[in-house]
Design a protein that fits this description.
- The protein is an all-alpha fold.
- It has a domain of 57 residues.
- Helices cover 47% and strands 0% of the residues.
- The structure holds adenosine-5'-triphosphate and magnesium ion.
- Magnesium ion (MG) binds next to helix 3.
Length: 152
């Protein structure tokens, strides 16, 4: 393939017109800043999670609804804003996202939580939650120990 042809492709990518205004909106993790018709749901979730800002433990939430109706978008939106608020207040909030379709056993969920929290970046191997080999109890203890060590 000639250099000229490649050059013209790249030039066109930079200067040419495109049908899509913002490609980011088509990515899987894009969360719209505004979610019309989801005020009630947003409010309920935010109220439930807001207690973490006072160091309390929020109630469990189960979101259900038809596919594509915005469950993930609403929760991500609230969590994004919660992180912003926590940062303003100097509070550390970690929210692990685990896809139970791939993490399809209890142990895999714990492993994903540990990964999300950065536990496996600890130098000492005995503090880490390995991909396999620990009991559920030991993995849970290591996650809780890590969390408590962050509070000190
Ligand atoms: N209120 C809204 N207004 C406009 N777009 C929205 C709204 N809620 C969600 N969307 C968009 O609709 C798409 C589907 O939303 P989302 O993935 O949150 O749905 P879901 O309920 O989690 O679906 P699933 O059940 O498949 O997990 C996403 O592109 C999201 O950005
Ligand atoms: Mg979803």
């Amino acid at each position: 393939m000639s250099d000229d042809l490649l050059d013209s492709i790249f030039e066109k990518a930079v200067s040419g017109k495109t049908l899509i205004k913002n490609r980011r909106t088509l990515t899987i993790d894009y969360v719209p800043a505004k979610l019309p018709f989801r005020d009630e749901e947003t409010k309920t979730i935010a109220q439930t999670l807001s207690v973490v800002l006072k160091g309390a433990r929020p109630s469990n939430l189960l979101l259900f609804g038809k596919p594509g109706t915005g469950k993930t978008a609403v929760i991500k939106n609230v969590v994004q804003r919660l992180h912003q608020k926590a940062k303003e207040l100097g509070i550390e909030v970690t929210v692990p996202f685990v896809n139970a379709k791939t993490a399809n056993t209890g142990y895999k969920v714990l492993y994903e939580i540990a990964e999300n929290m950065g536990i496996n970046r600890e130098e000492e191997k005995k503090l880490q939650v390995h991909f396999t080999g620990l009991s559920m109890g030991e993995a849970t203890d290591r996650i809780l120990d890590f969390k408590n060590s962050m509070l000190c």
